[in-house]
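Structure ticket #2291
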Amino acid sequence: MKHGDAPQDDSSTLEGQKKPLYVVNSDGVYTTELSSGWEAEEVVLDLAINQFQHQCQQARLRVEQGKTAPLEYHMYQRRMDITVLAQSTGFFKFQVKRHLQPAIFSKLSVKKLARYQQALGMTSVELQTLPLDEQQP
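Resolution: structure written out below.
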């Protein structure tokens, strides 16, 4: 993208703020230029957020039915998936999948729970329970 071509579509997701984009100036050197957003980016971001909200609601139902651990709900609420959570905790993906099983999750060591707590920014009690009301990020 050349200097002066940064999209200025006033994206509502940026809430009036601007973000830097890399552009090439007249000398062919990369530099940054502020953008108020791009309509295509906003559409894709809205779709992704809606998908995480849907996954979060479905996970909540599975937790209430005893089919999965609260960890799954919190993962989606923080807009993570198994891959991102595994990378954030240092666990392998197969371990995270296993930890989503209620019987396994309830027996996790304090040390393993602490890794999830740090990655999700939660206390131990919050991690092991659902919030009282369905709060979406």
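Closing remark: The first strand starts at residue 19 and ends at 24.
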